[in-house]
Amino acid sequence: MENRPLLQEAATGDDLRSDRRRPRGWKAMPYIIGNEAFERVATYGLTANFMVYLVKIYHMKQMAAANLCYVFGGTTSLAPLLGAFVSDAFWGRFRTLAVASIATFLGTVVLTLTAAAPQLRPPPCSQAAEESGQCPGPSNSQLAVLFLSLALLVLGAGGVRPCSLPFGVDQFDRTTERGKRGLDSFFNWYYSISTAGTVVAMTVVVYIQDSVSWAIGFGIPTGLMLLAIVFFFAGVKLYLFVPPEGSVFSGVAQVLVAAFRKRRLRLPSPNDAVQQESLLYSNLAQESAEEMKLPLTLQFRFLNKAAIICEGERKEDGQPADPWRLCSVHQIEQVKCAMRVIPIWASGIICFVALSQQWTFAALQSLKMDRHLGPSFEVPPGSLGIISLLAIILFIPVYDRALVPMARSLTGIESGITLLQRQGAGMVVAIISMVVAGLVEKKRRDSAVAHGGVNGSSPLSAMWLAPQLCLMGIAEAFNAVGQVEFYNRQFPEHMQTIAGSLFHCSLAGASYVSTFLVTFIRKSTAGPGQASWLEDNINVGRVDYFYYLIAVLGAGNLLYFVVCAHFYRYKGTGELKEASKDMEGIL
């Protein structure tokens, strides 16, 4: 929460030494963007097809593999919150990225060894034994090696995801027009390269894994991750190093502690925010450097007591003698911004549950469908997610160039619709995608049973899954992109690292909720002589019922979101302005 001046440091070897180095802008970008490109191909090349690897090579039951993927994905998405804390409070972005990149490389090496060394995986299994479920599973030592690789990948993701983009931003001088223009281009190139890396991982790398060799398919991402590290350290003489400024968590804790200590004091002018602000502590030296001075609000007014000035609590220069007893109005409003966002953030978890379920089960569905495109080429199950990515890539320009101007002419809002409306639209599309997914799954299951019983495979093309995957991509373009922009706009400037981590926390929550749902549905829907909805053989289960259940949960979540949006107060506004109208036109 403390606003410190930007310090500039240079690094040589393991030592960061103070240096008045100027930002080098685009001269440093090839190394940072190159690192991001190779890192993205490496990590997605390993994880995009991971569930198929667990089922085919480790002979795991399908639902057990799905749960492991959910837990791994959730932990990977939660780790950036810890990485952001370590970066801000102790190491800085460069050191955090360096350690995380090396951890990611080690994780890829260990995972590649599980595919290359026969001793580190279960023995091969015949097709007949595989269909009957008699394949030997992994031993405890083999699982230990697998979990070691996953732990290293989690550690790497925890440092790379929250720091990679901000470290690139640090290289531009945002006080000049040239720096601002360069930064705009950097964002475009960064996200373009990231998407391109994901596409390559989910096509070329996944195809090699499925059709050539798992060892080679994992070895390529490992080699690319080594190149990513080489690129990253090659630019060390050009980088601008911003030292850690302290964690925002300490500032939040100061406000909460100060408010608790003064809980018995009476607020002056309790019903007049303007008058009350004039009587409370305001650190003008600190707030003059802020991009946006936040006015005092009466929402969560119990926190305002942290700014009540008591005798002896200020030094002669006006600074608080004890920041754990006296906080400024601006500090308090920063904490309130975070508190207002949390209910909105919680609603995004269920939306991501819908998206993650389709991503996982679409691969399982495709294993029981015709995946041929043409007479010889067969689409790998792990590559089907590319349909969603292409939907995002194609839809965003249409949304930006066509839908936004149309909506702007109707609403008078510069962005066409508000950030909350964009998230709500994504939730609506996600619900529709789940209904479509249920209808397609019923058709696939009936066809598979008709062509070979419960062990049969449907002659339907896997492209029948394309409509639901396209809808999933559109939902993500609305909701996920809306969330990222919402967090960055609504969190205070000194909480931007946490804002970026919060999106990944939504993904983590969705993964853990998905794990709970799968386990709960398997147990609650099974009975004597009756299969559960989620059996290891999806022809026996009823995945379509599961899709419909998630659609119902999504509808309930949408109602909750509408209520939260109605009462939401935007950062920097003293009254409810846009919030009460945010859902107009969506329901």
TrEMBL record:
Subcellular location: Membrane
Keywords of the record: Membrane, Transmembrane, Transmembrane helix
Gene Ontology, cellular component aspect: plasma membrane
UniProt-listed CDD domains: MFS_NPF1_2
Topology of the protein relative to the lipid bilayer: Multi-pass membrane protein
GO molecular function list: transmembrane transporter activity
Region (Disordered) location: 1-21
Regions crossing the membrane: 70-91, 97-117, 143-169, 189-208, 215-234, 341-359, 379-399, 419-440, 460-481, 502-521, 545-568
Entry-linked Pfam families: PTR2
Superkingdom assignment: Eukaryota
Keyword field contains ATP-binding: no
Keyword NADP annotated: no
One of the protein's GO biological processes: transmembrane transport
Alphabetized InterPro entries for the sequence: MFS_trans_sf, POT_fam
Family: Belongs to the major facilitator superfamily. Proton-dependent oligopeptide transporter (POT/PTR) (TC 2.A.17) family.
UniProt protein name: (wild Malaysian banana) hypothetical protein
